[in-house]
C-alpha cells in the first residue's frame, strides 16, 4: 500500500522539525500555510510541494486605508420602525456591527437608497426623507401613523468577514483588522494585479497558488454583539457598488432597486424562488468575476505555477457549476469537507485537473483544547466523506489551521495517519474511478445544475431545524449507488426529461426554490412530468413537492403522488385513509424492533404499531421523517399507504400508468433513512429485481462495486463494530465482521 502522496499538510513558522515528522507519518507530499500563518525557510527546505494561500482582495491595509471608498459594499435593511406620528426616524446601524460595516456617506442616498412603507409595500418618495450623516439616521416626514418603515442603504464592508471570524475564534487580540477591497474600481483593480505580479516574482518557491478565494465574499454579516446575523453561503449581497449598479443598468436596460438585494429582509436566500433581477445580477457579476479570475490564472501559469481555487470565502461570482467555468483554466478546486454532500460539491466540479478536500476538524483552539478529543470529529468527518469519495473521488486530501495545535494530540495524529493511508489505498485499488451507479436520479428545483449539491443549504454543512428534513436527501444520495444530476424547471420546460433518467426527485417546503412555487401553474410542466411518469418514469416527492394552490389542489402532482395536503379550504370534504401496508419492499430493511414495539404500546399507540403510527415520535425502527408536514392525506383509497401518523401521510406509493409516484414527508440523514431512500428509488423505478446485488443486509454498512477494477468494498459507517452480509450477483452472499469505521475489500 502506498504510504505517501495525495496529502496536503498545514504548517507554520518555527515548526520545521515537527512538520517533517508529521509529514512522514501522514505521507504528505505538499505543505500549505493557513490564514494567519507563514512558512519559514526551514519548512520550505523539507522539499515538499508548496501551496501558498493568496488573498487577492485583503491583507494590504497600506493601500485600502487610502481608498476607503473602494471597499466592497452591501445593501443592508434596517430594523422596522413604527411611526407613531407624522414623522419617524430610522437609525441605520441599529443591530449591525460598526467595526464591520459603515454606511456609504459618499454616494447620493436618494439615488442609491430606498425607504419603504412596510405596511403597504410602497416606496416612499425621496422628497419625503432626508439622511443625517452625522448620526446615520434617516428622517421620514408625512409618515402614516401605525405603519412600519425601513431604509435600505449601502454600507462599506470595512473588516473582511472571514478574517474577522478567524480573529474572533482565535482571539487574535490587537492584530490589525484586515480591510477588504473591491476590484470593480479601476485603481484598486490595477493595484491587485500589480501586487500579484510582484508576489509571483517574490515567491519562486511556491508551486501552487491557493487563491483564498477571489473577489466577493458570500453574505456574512455580524450583529452588534459580534454574532452572525445574516449567513448565506450562496449570497451575492456583498457585491454591490454605485458604479456596478450604473453599469448593470447600461448593460441590461433597467435599474436594480435596493429591494432587489435586501428582498424584504430575506437577502435573496437560495431558498427564495429566484427572480429575474436576481438571476441577471448573478450573470452580470459572474461575467465580471470570471474575466478577472482568468487574468490571475493566466499570470499564475505564465510564472510556472498551478492555480487552485478555494471553494469558500470570496468564491461568489465564480459559479463552478455554471457553463463556462472550465474556460478559466484553473488547475484545481479545494474545499472544506463537512459531510458527504460537501464532498460531492467539490468532487463533481467539471473543468479542473484535480480536486482536493480540506477535512475537519480545522486545527483551531475551539476544537483543539484540553479535555477534548479531536479524533472523534476527525473519524466522523472521514466516515461521512468516505461514502461520497467512493462514488465521486476527490484527488487529494488535507487539513488546515495550526499544526502546532494538532501535534499536541497523539490520538488525533494516529487517527489522521489511518485516514490518510486509507484514502490513498482507495485510490490505489480503484485507480481513482467512481463506484458503479445503478440508477440515474435527477433532483428537480429552480436552480438546477448551477447549484449542484448546494440545494437545501443555508451555511456550509451546518444543520438547521427547518432544512434537515430535506438536506438528508442529498446526504443519503452522496454515497448511494446511483448517479445524481441536478435539473431545473426550465430544463424540463425546454427539453423534457432526459431519456436515461430513472427517477426525478422534487422536495422542499411550499413556496421555496426547491419545491417550485408558481412554476407549477404552468400546464406544460405538469403535462411533461405526468406523461413521463405514465410512460414508466418515477417521481419522488418530499415534504411539499409541486406545492402551489391552484384549481383546488395544493400538490399539483397529487395525482402522481397519490397524496395532497389539506390547506383548510376543503375541511368539509371527508378524507379516508386506506389500511396501512405493514410489509413492503421499501421498508424491508427497517423493521420495528421489539423494544420499539413495547415503547409504542406503553405510550398508548398499540393500535398503530403495525405501521401507521409514530408511537415513539416520528422515529419508527430507525426511520425519521423529520419535521412533520401536517394534514397530508391520500387522494383515494387505491394509494399504498406505508406509514402514517395522527392524520398525516409519512410514506406512500402510487401506481401511475406504467410508472410510480412516491411521497415521503421528510428525510433527515441516517443510515436507516438512506436505506429507505435507496429502496424507494429502486421500487419507484420498478427495478426491485436489481436491488439485492451489491447490497448490504445491515443499513449501517454500504457496498461499493468497482467493475473495472474487479473489486468491491463494504464500509462501516459507524464508530462501533458491525456485522453484515453482502449480497452478490447470482444470489450468493459474503459475511463481514467490521471494526468501527472499517473498510473491507474483496474481489468481485
UniProtKB/TrEMBL annotation:
Q: Which domain of life is it from?
A: Bacteria
The record ties this protein, via InterPro entries, to: Lact_bio_phlase-like_N (IPR035080), Lacto-N-biose_phosphorylase (IPR012711), LBP_C (IPR035356), LBP_M (IPR035363)
- List each copy of the Lacto-N-biose phosphorylase C-terminal domain by range: 694-745
Q: Which UniProt keywords apply?
A: Glycosyltransferase, Transferase
Domain Lacto-N-biose phosphorylase-like N-terminal TIM barrel residues, every copy? 5-434
Residues in domain Lacto-N-biose phosphorylase central?
440-688
Q: One MF term from GO for this chain?
A: 1,3-beta-galactosyl-N-acetylhexosamine phosphorylase activity
EC no. given is 2.4.1.211
Q: Which Pfam families match?
A: Lact_bio_phlase, LBP_C, LBP_M
UniProt keyword annotation of Glycosyltransferase present: yes
This protein is called: 1,3-beta-galactosyl-N-acetylhexosamine phosphorylase
The species this protein belongs to is Bifidobacterium phasiani
Amino acid at each position: 500500500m502506498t504510504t505517501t502522496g495525495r496529502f496536503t499538510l498545514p504548517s507554520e513558522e518555527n515548526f520545521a522539525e515537527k512538520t517533517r515528522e508529521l509529514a512522514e507519518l501522514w505521507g504528505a507530499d505538499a505543505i500549505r500555510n493557513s490564514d494567519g500563518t507563514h512558512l519559514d525557510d526551514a519548512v520550505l527546505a523539507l522539499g515538499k510541494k508548496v501551496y501558498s494561500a493568496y488573498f487577492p482582495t485583503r491583507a494590504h491595509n497600506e493601500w485600502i486605508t487610502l481608498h476607503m471608498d473602494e471597499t466592497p459594499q452591501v445593501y443592508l435593511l434596517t430594523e422596522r420602525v413604527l411611526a407613531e406620528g407624522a414623522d419617524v426616524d430610522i437609525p441605520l446601524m441599529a443591530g449591525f456591527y460598526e467595526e464591520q460595516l459603515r454606511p456609504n456617506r459618499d454616494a447620493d442616498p436618494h439615488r442609491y437608497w430606498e425607504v419603504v412603507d412596510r405596511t403597504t409595500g410602497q416606496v416612499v418618495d425621496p422628497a419625503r426623507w432626508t439622511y443625517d450623516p452625522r448620526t446615520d439616521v434617516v428622517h421620514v416626514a408625512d409618515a402614516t401613523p401605525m405603519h412600519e418603515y425601513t431604509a435600505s442603504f449601502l454600507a462599506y464592508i470595512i473588516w473582511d468577514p472571514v478574517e474577522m471570524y478567524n480573529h474572533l475564534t482565535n482571539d487574535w487580540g490587537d492584530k490589525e483588522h484586515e480591510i477588504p477591497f473591491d476590484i470593480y474600481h479601476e485603481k484598486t483593480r490595477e493595484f491587485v494585479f500589480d501586487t500579484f505580479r510582484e508576489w509571483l516574482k517574490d515567491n519562486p518557491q511556491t508551486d501552487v497558488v491557493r487563491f483564498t478565494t477571489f473577489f466577493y465574499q458570500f453574505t456574512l454579516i455580524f450583529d452588534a454583539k459580534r454574532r452572525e446575523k445574516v449567513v448565506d453561503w450562496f449570497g451575492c449581497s456583498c457585491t454591490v457598488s454605485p458604479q456596478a449598479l450604473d453599469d448593470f443598468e447600461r448593460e441590461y436596460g433597467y435599474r436594480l432597486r435596493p429591494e432587489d438585494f435586501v428582498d424584504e429582509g430575506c437577502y435573496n436566500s437560495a431558498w427564495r424562488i429566484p427572480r429575474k433581477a436576481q438571476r441577471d445580477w448573478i450573470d452580470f457579476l459572474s461575467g465580471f468575476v470570471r474575466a478577472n479570475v482568468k487574468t490571475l490564472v493566466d499570470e499564475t501559469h505564465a510564472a510556472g505555477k498551478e492555480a487552485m481555487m478555494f471553494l469558500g470565502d470570496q468564491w461568489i461570482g465564480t459559479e463552478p457549476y455554471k457553463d463556462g467555468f472550465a474556460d478559466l483554466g484553473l488547475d484545481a478546486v479545494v474545499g472544506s469537507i463537512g459531510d458527504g454532500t460537501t464532498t460531492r460539491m467539490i468532487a463533481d466540479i467539471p473543468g479542473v485537473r484535480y480536486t482536493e478536500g480540506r477535512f475537519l476538524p480545522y486545527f483551531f483552539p475551539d476544537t483543539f483544547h484540553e479535555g477534548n478529543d479531536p479524533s472523534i470529529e476527525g473519524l466522523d468527518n472521514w466516515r461521512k466523506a468516505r461514502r461520497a469519495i467512493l462514488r465521486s473521488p476527490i484527488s487529494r486530501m488535507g487539513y488546515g489551521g495550526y499544526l502546532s495545535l494538532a501535534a499536541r494530540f497523539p490520538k488525533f495524529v494516529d487517527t489522521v495517519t489511518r485516514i490518510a493511508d486509507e484514502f490513498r489505498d482507495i485510490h490505489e485499488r480503484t485507480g481513482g474511478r467512481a463506484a458503479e451507479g445503478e440508477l440515474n436520479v435527477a433532483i428537480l428545483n429552480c436552480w438546477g445544475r448551477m447549484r449542484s449539491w448546494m440545494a437545501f443549504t443555508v451555511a456550509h454543512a451546518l444543520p438547521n431545524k427547518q432544512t434537515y428534513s430535506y438536506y438528508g436527501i442529498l446526504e443519503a444520495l452522496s454515497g448511494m449507488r446511483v448517479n445524481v444530476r441536478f435539473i431545473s424547471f426550465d430544463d424540463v420546460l425546454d427539453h423534457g426529461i432526459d431519456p436515461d433518467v430513472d427517477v426525478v426527485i422534487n422536495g422542499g417546503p411550499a413556496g421555496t426554490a426547491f419545491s417550485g412555487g408558481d412554476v407549477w401553474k404552468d400546464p406544460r410542466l405538469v403535462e411533461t412530468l405526468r406523461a413521463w411518469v405514465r410512460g414508466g418514469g418515477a417521481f419522488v416527492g418530499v415534504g411539499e413537492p409541486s406545492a402551489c394552490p391552484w384549481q383546488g389542489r395544493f400538490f399539483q402532482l397529487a395525482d402522481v403522488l397519490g397524496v395532497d395536503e389539506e390547506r383548510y379550504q376543503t375541511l368539509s370534504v371527508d378524507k379516508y385513509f386506506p389500511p396501512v401496508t405493514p410489509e413492503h419492499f421499501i421498508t424491508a430493511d427497517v423493521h420495528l424492533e421489539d423494544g420499539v414495539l413495547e415503547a409504542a404500546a406503553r405510550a398508548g399507540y398499540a393500535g398503530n404499531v403495525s405501521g401507521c403510527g409514530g408511537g415513539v415520535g416520528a422515529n419508527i425502527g430507525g426511520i425519521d421523517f423529520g419535521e412533520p408536514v401536517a394534514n397530508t392525506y391520500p387522494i383515494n383509497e387505491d394509494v399504498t399507504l406505508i406509514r402514517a401518523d395522527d392524520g398525516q401521510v409519512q410514506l406512500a406509493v402510487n401506481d401511475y400508468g406504467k410508472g410510480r409516484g412516491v411521497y415521503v414527508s421528510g428525510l433527515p440523514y441516517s443510515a436507516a433513512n438512506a436505506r429507505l431512500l435507496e429502496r424507494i428509488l429502486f421500487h419507484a423505478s420498478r427495478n426491485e429485481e436489481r436491488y439485492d446485488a451489491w447490497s448490504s443486509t445491515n443499513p449501517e454498512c454500504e457496498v461499493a462495486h468497482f467493475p473495472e477494477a474487479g473489486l468491491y468494498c463494504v464500509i462501516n459507517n459507524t464508530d462501533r463494530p458491525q456485522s453484515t452480509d453482502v449480497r452478490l450477483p447470482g444470489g450468493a452472499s459474503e459475511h463481514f465482521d467490521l471494526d468501527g469505521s472499517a473498510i473491507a475489500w474483496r474481489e468481485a
